[in-house]
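Predict the 3D structure for this chain.
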Amino acid sequence: MSVHDMLASVRKHWLLIVALTVLATVGMGVLSWLTTPQYKASASLLVTVNSSGTDLSTGSNYTRDQMLSIGQLARMPVVLQGVISDLDLSQTPAQLDDSVAVTIPTGTTILSIAVTDPSAGHASEVANSVANNLAKVVEQISPKNTDGEPTMRARVVKEAVPPSYPASPNTSQNLLAGFVIGLIGGIAVAYVRDLLDTRVRRTEDVEELLNTPVLAKVSRWRGEPDEFVGSTWNTSARAEEFRRLRTNLEYLDVGQEEVCVVFSSALPGEGKTTTCASLAEVLAESGKRVLAIDADLRRPRLAAHFGLTSDVGLTTVLIGRASLEDVVQPVSEKLDVLASGSVPPNPSELLDSPPMRSVLSIAKDRYDIVLVDAPPLLPVADAVILSRISSGVILVADTRRVRANQLAEAAQSVTAAGGQIRGVVLNRVRESRSSAYQYETKAAPGVTRIRRSKPPVRAGEARPVQDTTTRALPTAGITPEWQKVDTTSDRPSRRG
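Done. Predicted structure below.
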């Protein structure tokens, strides 16, 4: 990941970063508050040599050589036992040793004794007692000169005083450390989370994975559901994204007389049906004659987007109970829908049959473009079958759900069967309102836009049409229902 990707991770997961930073800072604050304050008091001793002037230099070197041993002596029972006796302590020498620290500045004969204790007064008393007892022991164990006097002396040059502030915990320092740790940890978690996230979110992910163009990115603002673009006069940002998809699809199909595109996805619920229906609307809006076919014979949803019935449709034609022109349902002047019909027990066999090829051949001859809504690729093989008898497949990828391996497996199943992936639509791309540039058309003063609204049509009811001519459809053998539809939109063949 690049620096740009890291900044994007920080921007995307800023709430997580803030939460971890606050949690770490508050945690360090609580830990400091719960920790018992410790006070540190220190006393200093100066160790000198008791010798004549001619031996002073030699004696000083000897004293410096002995300073490390004297420092260790300060924490031994020979000294600490005297401290316990002087202060009448209930501790053992080993327990008292845990609170004593000795430091010797390099090149000096000064020894500093520091004692840490929850009581400031007690810490200073122990430090002074250790210093005094150490001075006595040094003189007792040091070698004697010819006069019987000790050759080394230790004097307390600085007595310990009760400290005014505790040495630990340092609350301000701990809060700062908690803030830094939380901030760095939050950024690291956000970075690793995105690094390990295999969901397909960006155009670069698709192009690197499939070497296939991204035809459109359909946004989904936070808190808003997916919306079907069902109006010719829809000027929302979502409708413009489908118009961009329409334009890119036209560039892909330059020079082709017959266009039949299958819409599918790797997983269920990625928005393929909504994408197919919305694209059909904007294609019809541009003046093209469009047929949208619901070939998802397992969970048909396409007709419901247009408020149409699914009682008769594709399955009715495939079993020979009706012709294509008998069961297509008009949505607008340029848009027709072929519903799924009744759900059959053998959808794969019906789709992989000569009648299905004949339906698509007739549809491509009569319409400028045919859009086929197919089942998802990974659960069933229906879309793979349709990919072999169409112009190609457009994969709809939900950026919140589909993983890279799932999308790659779905594309591989199409290409392995001889089909072609024409492009990918990234669906539900999360964007903020401020990042979406909208240039919406405003109606002139006094002009009211009319939005088409079609209620669902139930079996047995007549659909209002522009012409008064209606025809009763034959039964499909799957359902006993009858329906009246408009059959006046017989269009001449493009080839004729």
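Residues 443-496 have pLDDT under 50 and may be disordered.
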